[in-house]
Write a structure and sequence with these properties.
By secondary structure, this protein is mainly beta. The protein is built from 13 helices and 47 strands. Helix 1 runs antiparallel to helix 2 (about 25-45).
């Protein structure tokens, strides 16, 4: 009332002044406008004197900040949500001073009432260690469904992947520490005191990355790393590991934590996987924020638990905490994400990630000690732009790019780059670990390991090929050997190498040599010339390394050709394309009883001269560097492969020209509420005037073998027929189809954290089909085989993770069992049953 009377008096005074100055119209008008604006300013409720309240919320036990706690003003619904660092800020008006306290709450903590004004901006919440179990609160399910379904309906509008274009800056920091039990911390012995002093003054590890992230719909991504630093190392070698580890947003159907997919609680089918509770409802200005907690539904679920905040403005996710704990591995993984609403133009706003945490806690124990390895990665995002830069060009071959000298940035430049300066502990981490790294030559050790992604170990200017040391197959039994080549320390653009190995089964040496020239630093433009004297299984389809890395085929090598090959090739990557042009001359001598009948004669030795063009296309494939070697992170789209070969076969005095075409499509897709789909189409065709030998036909990819005697079991391998032998089928044109479906849910869970064995099987179904034809099969002499011209069909059921063995509390070694059956009658030449028990081994995180 006082303010209104004051405004009224001012108005009358201004009117009188305006009468006195009526002769000067301009001044009268200006005076009236000033008075009117002043009147509006005083009478407007938004102009009332305001006071800002700021605070930080902590866990009273761990002394760490609590993200996303809710802060309400008095007993009402007005309030705010603390950010990822536990900080909150909001303004109160003096007219509302009757509210004299704050109500602070968070799931898993006792609520706390804090009097105003704050005597200290640090607020500590007490964890709820023993929550009452006899209090049953029935959540408002209809309201929860309405909120979550509205958020799902708006996912396309708020998903950064659905925006046409954006560019932003991302600062990433990772620290790792060891948390020790109270008994250790209270120990006053000298070594314990020294370790406590060490851990109090610095982190175990630390790294930073600053990058510019550019996106264009549908799936074009570029991350230019302009600064990178890893404690103890001068050169950046782990850039890809820290830029790809954190989910960028929570709008996909699955959230990937530590390499494993979990259903997103805000996605279709949420009621099938999660139970929700409405924990709080907060009014922020004109918007409402609903705080929803969620947990897995059912004991066999392997899903997330946490809390998600939905804002009524666009029904967008404003905050989310999601975590999973593996009690057997004693490991928990958690993400914390905060979003902000940013202006696109004067009339449009968009939700976008602002701050993200990625936290891993891994408990380790032994008879003498116990500790927890704690790793926390923090990402801060700013400088978001929405207007597409017409001059920007995506490097389709390299998603993550390390700019020149990014790992040589001086401290002065880093201080300008970081959103906040390093604290004393972080600065000391670099100081101490960089000194230790220099003293113990950590960069030299990293250099030795830099070729591991390529299967090599570097010693000085020589790279040793560790894949050549030992191999085993049915034909050779053990093969011992060695392989080596020069590296960039001798000549950057050229490498010469060779290998040799001796088979103890066939008592023969195999060897080869080559010369390579590189047209780029990533060795993606390679010219190669070489010679090999080796063995090869006849007819094996080799299209691309992605599809050919079936190690079981190498193990089942029983029918072989001795093959001497002189070759030359050029490989080059163009964006999403990978190409190889090659030419070779081969001398082929079958090491089994065989002859090709053609022109009334039988031949058992062959010469071939051929040229090939190989293609691979992977749209929107993500790639990242590791030790300067780019590896694939996969693509959301099908990958296409093709190979065209034109050759001339010489058998005695007869020459036969031939042309072969191979093509394949491979696709893996995790479909919400359905599961993981694996699809492979592969086909090929040969054209020739005369019959070709087995070496130039297409062999069916069979994985069946007998362990001993009549035991009908095989080792499972994706990409082959489980009820057919490796050399059972041959054709000159074929079509192979494979479909596998992995269900997300588990049949049951049997586990005890005190035991190393557990069982948590998930079900898989698979169908394989091979069809092919062969002109003049009678030309192939002295060998048994079939032609799959009636289509060979088989189906199987697999139980993965039937038995899990905990390995160093890091991952599981798994035993997988299944059964495949040839579902349509087919003449099998060995007369054995069509069913086949299969087993396999693997590992699971």
């Amino acid at each position: 009332m006082f303010m209104q009377r004051l405004a009224g008096n001012m108005y009358h005074i201004l009117m009188k002044l305006s009468v006195i100055n009526h002769k000067v119209g301009f001044y009268r008008f200006a005076l009236l406008c000033t008075g009117y604006l002043f009147l509006l300013a005083l009478s407007s409720p938004h102009s009332l004197a305001q006071e800002k309240i700021t605070g930080i919320i902590y866990d009273s036990v761990t002394k760490e900040t609590i993200p996303f706690a809710t802060v309400k003003f008095g007993s009402g619904v007005q309030g705010t949500v603390a950010d990822l660092d536990g900080k909150f800020t909001f303004a109160i008006e003096h007219t509302n001073i009757r509210f004299s306290y704050l109500e602070v709450s968070c799931l898993g903590y006792h609520s706390k009432t804090v009097s105003l004004p704050l005597s200290n901006n640090q607020i500590y919440l007490q964890p709820e260690f023993n929550q009452l179990q006899d209090v049953i609160i029935i959540p408002p399910y209809d309201k929860i469904r309405r909120i979550v379904r509205a958020a799902i309906a708006k996912k396309t509008d708020n998903n950064p992947d659905k925006y046409d274009w954006y560019k932003c800056h991302v600062y990433y920091k990772m620290v790792a520490n060891i948390s020790l039990p109270d008994s250790f911390m209270k120990d006053t012995s000298k070594d314990k005191r020294e370790f406590r002093k060490f851990s109090d003054s610095q982190h175990l590890l630390m790294s930073e990355t600053y990058s510019i992230r550019t996106w264009r719909k549908p799936q074009q991504l570029q991350e230019d790393v302009i600064a990178s630093r890893f404690s103890g190392l001068k050169k950046s070698v782990f850039t890809s590991l820290v830029t790809d580890v954190v989910p960028f947003h929570a709008y996909s159907d699955y959230l990937t934590l530590n390499g494993k997919d979990y259903h997103n609680p805000v996605s279709h089918g949420f009621e099938q996987y999660y139970q929700f509770s409405l924990d709080d409802e907060i009014i922020q200005g004109e918007d409402t924020v609903w705080a929803l907690s969620f947990k897995p539904r059912g004991r066999t679920s392997n899903e997330l638990e946490g809390k998600v905040f939905i804002n009524s403005d666009g029904y967008a996710i404003s905050h989310i905490i999601a975590k999973n704990r593996d009690t057997m591995l004693k490991m928990s993984v958690r993400i914390e994400q905060e979003y902000a609403q940013l202006a696109v133009n004067d009339s449009e706003k968009r939700w976008f990630p602002k701050h993200m945490n990625y936290i891993i806690d891994w408990e380790r124990a032994s008879k003498k000690s116990a500790f927890t390895l704690h790793m926390k990665g923090t990402s801060e995002i700013d400088s978001v732009k929405w207007l597409e830069d017409p001059d920007f060009r995506f490097d389709k071959s390299h998603t993550v790019k390390l700019k020149t000298s990014a790992d040589e940035l001086p401290d002065s430049q880093w201080n300008k780059t970081r959103p906040d300066p390093l604290d004393a502990k972080e600065a000391n981490t670099y100081k101490v670990l960089d000194s230790l790294g220099s003293k113990f030559h950590a960069d030299r050790f990293a250099e030795y390991m830099s070729k591991l992604p390529e299967g090599k170990i570097q010693l000085s200017f020589i790279d040793f090929d560790i894949t050549r040391f030992f191999t085993y197959n049915y034909h050779e039994n053990c093969r011992l050997g060695a392989g080596a080549q020069t590296n960039e320390k001798l000549v950057k653009w050229l490498s010469a190498g060779g290998w040799a190995g001796y088979g103890f089964g066939d008592l023969k040496w195999k060897y080869g040599g080559f010369l390579e020239a590189y047209g780029d630093k990533h060795k993606e433009f390679v010219f190669r010339i070489g010679y090999t004297d080796d063995i090869n299984d006849p007819g094996r389809v080799r299209l691309n390394h992605d599809l050919d890395k079936n190690y079981l085929n190498s193990y089942l090598l029983t029918r072989v050709d001795e093959m001497k090959t002189t070759y030359v090739s050029v490989k080059k990557k163009f964006g999403y394309w990978s190409t190889e042009l090659s030419a070779r001359q081969q001398q082929i001598v079958p090491q089994y009883q065989y002859a090709l009948e053609t022109g009334g004669n039988e031949y058992s030795q062959f010469k071939a001269s051929e040229a090939s063009l190989s293609l691979r296309y992977a749209y929107a494939e993500r790639t990242a560097p590791l030790f300067n070697y780019y590896y694939t992170l996969g693509s959301l789209y099908p990958m296409w492969y093709a190979k065209i070969t034109s050759g001339m076969l010489q058998t005695g005095n007869m020459q036969t020209p031939y042309t072969q075409v191979l093509s394949a499509v491979a696709w893996r897709k995790h479909i919400n509420r359905i599961g993981n789909e694996h699809i492979l189409f592969e086909g090929g065709k040969s054209w020739s005037n005369n019959p070709l030998p087995l070496s130039k036909l297409f062999a069916g990819s069979g994985n069946k073998f007998d362990v001993s005697g009549s035991i009908q079991s095989s080792v499972y391998s994706f990409g082959g027929l489980m009820t057919a032998y490796p050399y059972q089928f041959y054709s000159d044109q074929f079509l192979f189809f494979l479909y596998r479906h992995d269900f997300d849910w588990k049949l049951y869970k049997l586990e005890n954290k005190e035991m190393i064995l557990s069982s948590a099987p998930n079900l898989c179904v698979q169908y394989n089909m091979l069809y092919g034809t062969l002109n003049n099969p009678g030309a192939q002499k002295y060998v048994n085989f079939s032609v799959p011209d009636k289509a060979y069909n088989e189906a199987g059921l697999l139980l993965n993770n039937l038995v899990r063995v905990r390995y160093y509390d890091l991952y599981y070694l798994t035993l997988n069992i299944g059964y495949f059956y040839h579902i349509i009658p087919y003449p099998i030449f060995d007369g054995r049953q069509n069913g086949r028990l299969v087993y396999g081994a693997g590992f699971d995180l």
